[in-house]
Amino acid sequence: MSQILSRTVAAFILAGTLSTAGFILPANAQTMAQLTAEVQKADSAGVTSFHLQNGLEVVVIPDHRAPVVTHMLWYHVGSADEDPGKSGIAHFFEHLMFKATKTYPAGEFSRKVAEIGGQENAFTSYDYTAFFQQVSPQALEMVMTYEADRMENLILNEDVVKTERDVVLEERRSRTDTNPAALLSEEVNATLYQNHPYRFPVIGWLHEMEQLNLKDALAFYEKFYTPNNATLVVSGDVDADTVKALAEKTYGKVPRRSEPGKRERPQEPEQNTKRTVSLADARVSQPSFQKIWLVPSYNNAKPGEAEALDLLSEILGGSTRSRVYQALVVKDGLAASAGVYYQGGALDDGTFSVYGAPRGSASLQQVEDGVDAQVARIIKDGVTADELEKARNRFLKSVIFARDSQAGMARIYGSTLSTGQTIKDVQEWPDRIQAVKVQDIQDVAKRYLVDAHSVTSYLMPEDGKPDEKIPSTGEAAPVEPQTEGVIQ
Amino acid sequence: MTRVLTPVFSRIAAAFLLVILAAAPVYAVEIKEVVSPKGIRAWLVQDDFVPLIALRFSFEGGSAQDPKGKEGLANLMTGLFDEGAGDLDSDAFQEKLDDAGAEMGFTADDDRISGAMRMLADRRDEAVDLLALAVNKPRFDQAPIDRIRQQIIANIKASERDPNTIAGRKFAEALYGDHPYGRQSQGTETSLTSVTRDDLAGYHKRVFARDKLIVGVVGSISPEQLAPLLDKVFGDLPEKAQLEPVKDANLALGKTTRVDYPLPQTSISMVYPGVRRQDADFFPAFIMNHILGGGSFSSRIYTEVREKRGLAYSAGSALVSRDHMAALTISTATRSDRAGETLQILKDEVARMAQDGPTENELSEAKKYLVGSYAINNLDSSSAVASTLIGLQDEHLGRDYIDKRADLINAVTLDQVKAAAKKLLETEPAILIVGPPQS
């Protein structure tokens, strides 16, 4: 599952990704043609890109409706690029980027942004770290100047590192240690991924975070924070020529600081077992389950497979019209919630998951069996042409709706270009969605949703028992949330 | 790991966390007032950049109208508008809505029922027909009532052992006493079980009326095209809503509520008196809150608690203003062995602000922020602009408010801000502490 940490809780939620909004059109040829035309208009929408001499890639997405620009700098480094034993350094370093530089005192950049009513924040994920500001067009040069400055001129000392390390430790306690579902999710990733660093939480393991130091931070900075390892995305009330001139004047002055090289992480071995992870906690009163598989991402899938997985997840459980929701929540009345999620936006392997929680007198086992039955049915019989058409139209529709948010557009391009893909991949996505055939859906379901290679997790009340016995093989020890975090 | 599947679950249960919306100026955006043949008024921002239309509306009368013993009625009702209307049952309605490429949602807060639809401009007639059905002729069939009710009950049960949920409930009861704002807006298993189809239909009839309706529309549609659509959706609703009067809440401050639980962090919430949006000293208080602990990375609380001492990840303050209450809230979560120190820092910052107010420099920086941030916070998408149109009308701020807002902020003096600080912050707050004992 995707895990993105923001610098503050006030971080704004950027509008949906390409594949999650839900809109449908009838399978009607004329409407289809209109829709395709609109989608193509939305796709290209005047998006341009270029590279600076130092290797920085720049993407410009004009939208002149409001006097606002979104400026996002995406470094192609995330938690999966950390050295062993240093979990959490990518996210910790993102926090440190807000400290003093050789040129400006600590907090000056934030003050300048606040002074004009701008918004700013940063976030870190497995594959990228991004810094962004939303400001008026007149202030674009200012934010570019400061952002370029901290790419090469950051200065850190022991005190700054120690205080900010306390902040990220509190962040871990707030997000994870106080939340049984978050703790379980951490353990699920550590079980699903057996070799790839996606098995480590973005925020880091507590015992490793406590040891992160100035030397680690500086080494990370020198290796990864360089123009040739970043993509700049500017969307909003601005044109490409202006951005180009400003980028050359600001980022263009930053030399290539290092050659981080190809992003080659340890890859997953063949998965051969069915694993179960469970967590019982006194704070949980309703049980729930999730089953998750390792599947290809958009970046590493064979042609068409990621698109088919995306459509499969939509048909199986992407909305209240989906098979799983209709069967378990509406018709059988077993589930309070049930659905499916494909996480395909990773540089390396992605995940496919199904989940549910019972309602009324239904048991967790009944819900799990019901969801399993829906997966089995698609593997056996595939989907109908009508289902595929509706799911496809929802995706195409989402492309049009995505254009409504300049920040959302910047995020779509930035995240895609930071996970090994290209502008062309973003723009041809609708065509590739169009090309998926009914048989392709069944094929990916059969190929990847193999029960014997899945990880099932249970979040349970402390006093409750699973309705049926949970297989003991491979079961992780329940995590006690109170043990590590409390310092009393 | 669970995704929100119905609007029912988006209801914020804790009573005091809604952040105030300063109404939204839409620079360079022309707001037109459209009046339909049947007299329905709407504010419209016409914009053809994306071929979509975002329509938002609200009716006065939310969870505070729930009859005693029927808590959760308003929230339950909002889950039922896409579950069948007119001659379409639940399945048929949702199928048509999907086919129309439209997105529809309803929510209830304490004072209002709100609705929203996002649709493709060239499919607007199909979409609006469905909205008209939902608004005028919701079926409230028994099967969907039972299903959505069970989902809400499951949701209530899912958090019933969560210490922060338990604490929030306890705190709300302590703050509000028997005022409707102190009740659980989702209801309880018992209250929801007692809700009947007649309750829902009766509630709909009382609240969905033209005199308490506000409409905001943004997107690819002209005033001439919008007018008949307004009539179709709202033109045949009853003239007058029948609302129970709600008294102003008298917040019980000065008391500390503790919930002991062996958590890895101690969370601290403080509640001070606030100001209403309509009060004359709203902007002085708004600016004061911004400097004390508001949105940017440079507030006093953020600086003292997080930047200087690393005591917390989130730390800040917010103004809350509802129809019948106003408050200034402060919240943070910190390592338990330093919770006492953190609480003292918060109290010290409040005392310093109450006593001396901000500096001239802080005031001028805050003004610049609050003027400049308006477009950024409110113009990011059609839906955001539509929400802004609702907020402006809700607070009776006028279509020219956008042009006036910067002047209103810039006119605030240092003395006014100091007076606002004294007025709000010299009261003993209500405090909630959740964490290990003696932290």
Automatic annotation (TrEMBL), chain A:
The keyword Signal applies. Residues 1-29 form the signal peptide. GO terms for biological process: proteolysis. Keywords: Hydrolase, Metalloprotease, Protease, Signal. Residues 249-273 have a biased composition (Basic and acidic residues). One of its GO terms (molecular function) is metal ion binding. Residues 249-277, 459-488 are annotated as: Disordered. InterPro entries: Metalloenz_LuxS/M16, MPP/UQCRC_Complex, Pept_M16_N, Peptidase_M16_C. It comes from the Bacteria. Residues 58-202 form the Peptidase M16 N-terminal domain. Residues 212-394 form the Peptidase M16 C-terminal domain. It holds the Pfam family Peptidase_M16_C. Its EC number is 3.4.24.-. Belongs to the peptidase M16 family. This is Zinc protease. It comes from Phyllobacterium myrsinacearum. The lineage of its organism: Bacteria, Pseudomonadati, Pseudomonadota, Alphaproteobacteria, Hyphomicrobiales.
Automatic annotation (TrEMBL), chain B:
Residues 194-369 form the Peptidase M16 C-terminal domain. Keywords: Hydrolase, Protease. It holds the Pfam family Peptidase_M16. Transmembrane segments: none annotated. The keyword Disulfide bond does not apply. It comes from the Bacteria. One of its GO terms (biological process) is proteolysis. Residues 54-187 form the Peptidase M16 N-terminal domain. The keyword Oxidoreductase does not apply. It is an enzyme of class 3 (hydrolase). This is Zinc protease. It comes from Phyllobacterium myrsinacearum. The lineage of its organism: Bacteria, Pseudomonadati, Pseudomonadota, Alphaproteobacteria, Hyphomicrobiales.
